[in-house]
Amino acid sequence: MKFLEKALADTAKDLSGEVVVIGGGNVAIDCARTAGRKGADHVSMYCLESRETMPASVQEIEEAEEEDVKICAGWGPKEILTNESGKVCGVVLKRCLSTIDPETGRFSPKYDEDDTITVPADKVVFAIGQAIEWGKLLEGTAVTFHHGNYPVADPFTYQTADPCIFVGGDVFTGPKFVIDAIGQGHEAAESLRRFVSANSVSLTIARDRRYFKSLDKDNIAIDSYDTAQRQVPPVDETIDYKHEFKDNRLIFTEEQVKAETSRCLGCGASIVDQNKCIGCGLCTTRCEFDAIHLHRDHPEASDMRRAEDKVGGLLSYAIPRAFNIIKNSGSEEAKMMRQKRKEYNAATKEFHKTHPHTGNAVDINELMKD
Q: How far is CA 272 from CA 33, 218, 253, 279, 297, in A?
């Protein structure tokens, strides 16, 4: 990261000779491509993983190779060689047989110490991940750790053994995507909100656990699904993209914009929470794209009407009902209900004077005091 920071701060071509980058992720790719732009004569990358399991994205790998970066998979550093003046002159690498322990599923590389190669190098850049530096932040706390200095926490609430401390992101899961850290930040914030609440709110009750069944994309055939490929932007041939930091990609043409925006716009299915939706249909009237529709499971059980037609429908119901009420107003049942209503109003008269209904929400704690 420091190498990239310095390179972007000063883009002068101050590198030369052979540059070796250790690592197989997107950051290692960035380092290798940056080294070429900084003036390196030749850049090579060496990573533990196989070509198929390299963590770098396929597009990043292809772009690096287009810029003449040599990618060598399945090798790990064994020794850094120096000359008489103490400067780097080469790297000894050993064959990596595997990176993941099949029993635990954890990162645990295995090597063949006898299968080695020596690569000349004038500069070596290590891009093999970042370390967690807690400093004195967690001193005196009850936080426990595993796998070195990774804190142990609940995978749902992100609360550690010290109830006042919550963690998330790479310090908890190890290297993952930024969006994973953002999601965990949201969930940890919800846990924090509940934890500091004065009402002793549970950290887990009524929270979305986001259970889902992954779609088997290898065994699915949807005829109507748009399979159009993503558009590739044109490039400015006058820019030497292999040796300059300036981006040579141009904006989409009008035809490309139309093709890109015409790709499938209905790739997801919305799921309605039946505990929250009351079927009012308001969403169908607010959607400007007419993308939301209500379908009744039992249409025969109700009479669906448009809003413009509801007045007539209500009148056809309300008028006969009004006549029935008037006709039965003198019955014994009606007299009994009027008497009960009088008794209730008399009993609650004083309460309504001191507790006028304003239409606003009422603090339940205040009512409980009374």
A: 47, 27, 39, 10, 14
Give the distance, in angstroms, between the CA of residue 73 and the centroid of all CA atoms in the same chain. 29
CA 151, CA 154: separation in Å to the nearest integer?
A: 10
Q: Which two tokens stand for residue 72?
A: 């060598």
- 53 secondary structure, DSSP code: G
Average pLDDT over residues 74-102: 94
Beta strands 18-22 and 42-47, pairing class = parallel
Q: What is the pLDDT of residues 205-225, one digit of tens each?
A: 988 887 777 777 778 776 655
Nearest to 75 by CA among 128, 131, 36: 128
Report the distance separating Cα 82 and Cα 85, nearest Å.
8
User: What is the architecture of the domain spanning 132-211?
Assistant: 3-Layer(bba) Sandwich (3.50)
Domain range 2-126, CATH class: alpha beta
Domain ranges of the chain: 2-126, 132-211
Strand partners, 118: 92
Query: Do 132-211 and 2-126 have the same topology in CATH?
Result: yes
CA triplet 269, 275, 278: central angle to 5 degrees?
85
Q: Give tens-digit pLDDT for 259-300.
A: 888 776 555 556 677 777 877 888 888 888 888 888 777 878
pLDDT for 360 beyond 60: no
What is the reported pTM?
A: 0.59
**What is residue 189's three-state secondary structure?**
helix
